[in-house]
Amino acid sequence: MSSQTDVSARPAASARLVPVRTCVGCRAKAAKTELLRVVAVEGAVVPDLRGRSPGRGAHLHPDPGCLALAEKRRAFPRALRVDGPLETTAVRALLEGS
């Protein structure tokens, strides 16, 4: 018996692994591309559409229901590691407008 790994158990070279993130609202895991990244800027949660803003980010389904759950659970200050409540009007305006 050889100590080599079974090549059939490896993913195909052409298959790309997709990063998975957890929604702070509903706590469901989803592909990073399916979620909206948000960051804290001066006491407010703002959407990061390009995913390039500096600092700690949190991910959220682009659904007003998940935003409401995150607000109810007070998940944004915890996920973004900031003190005090955060304003979410910018994220709400984006979600209700789309």
Strand order of the largest sheet: 4-3-5
Order of helices and strands: EEEEEHHH
How many helix segments? 3
Global shape: globular
Distance between termini? 58 Å
Helix content: 10-25%
Radius of gyration: 18 Å
Q: Based on DSSP secondary structure assignment, what is the total number of beta strands?
A: 5
| Average predicted local confidence, pLDDT | 90
Low-confidence stretches: none
Compact overview of the structure:
The protein has helices spanning 64-72, 75-80, 89-97, and strands at 20-22, 29-31, 36-41, 44-48, 57-60. It is α+β, with helices and mostly antiparallel strands.
Fold and architecture overview:
The chain has 98 residues and is of the alpha+beta class. Helices cover 24% and strands 21% of the residues. It is built from three helices and five strands. The chain has helices at residues 64-72, 75-80, 89-97; strands at 20-22, 29-31, 36-41, 44-48, 57-60. It has a three-stranded antiparallel beta sheet. Strands 1-2 form a two-stranded antiparallel ribbon. A hairpin with a 2-residue loop joins strand 3 (36-41) and strand 4. The longest helix is centred in the last third of the chain and has 9 residues, at 64-72. It is globular, with a radius of gyration of 18 Å. The termini are far apart. The relative contact order is 0.20. The model has no long low-confidence stretch (mean pLDDT 90).
